[in-house]
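In keeping with the milestone schedule agreed at the kick-off meeting, the structural modelling team has produced records for the first pair of proteins. Each record is given below as a sequence line and a structure-token line. The laboratory manager (R.T.) confirmed that both were archived under the project's standard naming scheme.
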Amino acid sequence: MLLALVVVYLVISIGIGLFAAAKVHNARDYITAGRHLPMAVVLAMVFATWFGAETVLGNSGAFLKDGVSGLISDPLGAGVCLMLFGLVFARPLYRMNLLTLGDFFRRRYNRGIELALSICIIVSYLGWVAAQITALGLVFNMLSDGIISEGWGMVIGAGVVLLYTLLGGMWSVAVTTFVQMIVIVAGLFYVAWIANDKAGGVATVFAHASNLGKFDLSGAEWRDILAWGAAFFTMALGSIPQQDVFQRVNSSGNEKIAVWGTTLGGLAYTLFALVPIYLAYTALVIDPDMVNALLTSTDIASEPTQRILPTLVMTHMSPATQVIFFGALLSVIMSTASGTLLAPSVTFSENVMKSFFPQMTDNQLLWVSRATVVVFTMLVTWYALTSDTTIHQMVENAYRITLAGAFVPLVAGIFWKRVNELGAALAVTFGLVTWVGGEILLHIEAISDVIEPQVYGLIASAIGMAIGVACGRPAQESPPASNAAPANAQT
């Protein structure tokens, strides 16, 4: 019965997405929803797209294992990223009226920088989308009591998300995400209320966590602090040059919506991300034997810590509560998966394919984007099936390449008038070479892991930009002024 109800929910989600697909008439509709989305929908998309499998399953397991230090990158770093993007980056980027973030790099620098950084952005999505596909496999496996393997669950889940994302693009993502956000918030609040009652109340849960030192950072050594800083900046800064965040900003109906929809969505994400973490910790109070067995399990393939929250619901809550929880969990995963499937796909079609076929028509761009969604879905599903990395680690690793290669060219391109093509080229080259070299040396244990390689890459990228600006000529085009009039102002 539980599986049947979940299937009905999936069919309804597909129907909503296909209904929204009727609004797609050209590539701009597919990529930016015609820049007509209201505040509530933009806020919902920012919140729900980032409120993914790692937020519910990955972060909760990380807190149970490592305490508050396990939350440095997500939700803290992720929330800071969204609010920073809204307050600092949304206004100048919205005014440029672009289709993709790669378009910014072409307009500010040249096609070579556009191509290189677009590929970096595309690669960064492999881990993030794969994390959602992995979680879908876990959910279908648990719902079917093992009848559906995790592998087949990944394939089924990827197919469902692909179906409505393929045809409707950003319109389908926007409408389904708005509905899914309502399910997420209502469902998780209800389940948390039930779990809180079973655990003896908020005071009991917090006292339990405090007694186990989950909030204690006083014993941290300098190595720990450096590691936390690297994790925080990788998520907070490395996530900024990302197409999915930019796409939500760029789909807004006007500049004010772009700024505050993103900022408030980031704030909502940061606060509400604490709900599944609290919910998972109640499991340790309610059923410590189950939690400790999963925490100490050596079965990496089944990712045991990510099963804590679903296992709690399946073993200690009523069938009605199970339906609500898994409906909310599927909403969480699908809302993130659909948005993160679309972002790299349109980046590839707009900034990679059009570099080689500049005469591509709007209709051709639309169909190339759809074809790329299919190919990218197959690629990330394969990656999810073959990887033994946890959901939390997949997401943490996703932004290393954009932190090292794309962050400095984006920031300098917007806010530094003297920036030039040489500076951008050196920033990309220095950043990526340093990061890749550091990863290789770290893998063979030739260097210490006190500071992660992507942080060295960020520093090298900044040095490269400074050298290029000092040695080269300023670019012809100035960055977008903060007080310039929007390209297509709407009231």
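The second protein of the pair:
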Amino acid sequence: MMKQKDGKVNTMKNKKFLDSPFAVILCNLILFFLVYFVVISDYVVSLAIMAVVILAILLVNRYNLVNKIFDLYIRHKKTALISGLILGIIYPFSLTDNVYVAHIATLAVIYGIACLGLNFQMGSTDMTNFAPAAFMGIGAYSVAIASVNMGLSPWIGMLGGLVLSGVFGFLIGLPTLKTKGYYLSLVTMAIQLAFTELVRIWPYVGGDDGLSGVQRYKLFGFELYKRYTIFGIRMSPQIPYLLLCIAFLVLCTYIAMRVYFSRTGIAMNTVAQDEIAADCLGINVSRTKLFAFVIGGVYCGLAGTLFAGLEGYAGPATYNFQKSLMLICMVILGGMDNSIGVVLGAFILAIITEKLRDFADFQQLIYGAILVVMLIVRPDGIIPWRVRNHDLITKRKPKIIEKLGESTDIAAKAELKSEV
């Protein structure tokens, strides 16, 4: 009897720990070390770690543990946010003087922002957009034109890029309101090819050579792309810029998740399932589609402005159709309509792409093989779409449970329990 009681006590303690803020901190620490070792290791170890992580996620998801981890983060979101911010600040400094590793990490974060924007269209609204690189190009060229041709601050170029990419998304969305499926894909594909050709033949934006010498971002007089020595440790020049990109990624992820749980997010999913049914339910289908194009364009434009600040250059070869395909593959790999999954997919493929640069002849082969295997084995992505839990977000009990607690009639309780 004593052993049974001790076993029950230990089980209760384990359950309390797994549902406590310490479990969230432990999960954040595991993620921190996984990302750290994947980025700093050579390509063989990096690929091995990512393969093991993907297999572990697929295995864990089979037992519905991924949703439980998501719910854990939602219940203790303050702890998750604070510990995540602390680790996010520590992470860039852990890269020290490794310029190449810091560059890969910054690229992965920027691609994560672009994929969040593309997810509004592909994941939430089921509109395949083959022109995310064009939106990134608008943001990048806005910064380049502002700083190189006009001599203005790159921050002004960033604001201009966000506005122009949003307007561009609105203008593209208008003619595509009556198209869907393959026709919409062909329209966006034509827009991407037209954008690449336009910047190639336009002398004002440098033509084939592009615009080089883009000014680096500064914040309160401090350059964000410069080597600093902190506590005697010489840092990579990308470290301050990586911190800026992480801040933007956190903000963009928060906004994306808020939209997902809002009425607008539900409306986008309804449009994706059936436009006629959405219209019958009173949803403005045209406005919902335009919103997806505009907010997705703004996200991609922001990623483009950050990319131009990192590279110091904006050219047609950087924002071509191949880049659009890469972003689409990132969204499909991570899991459409799941912000965390999309960011994970962006991180994985960005790191794989950069790690395999020494094997350029086989890079696309490996890249394509990974996607083919994932589409066959896991078509919904590594972390697929999950059902919204509004009661957990708002910290309210379902109304049927409240009625069950308030009811004094035994028969009524029995009926309510059967509904539950």
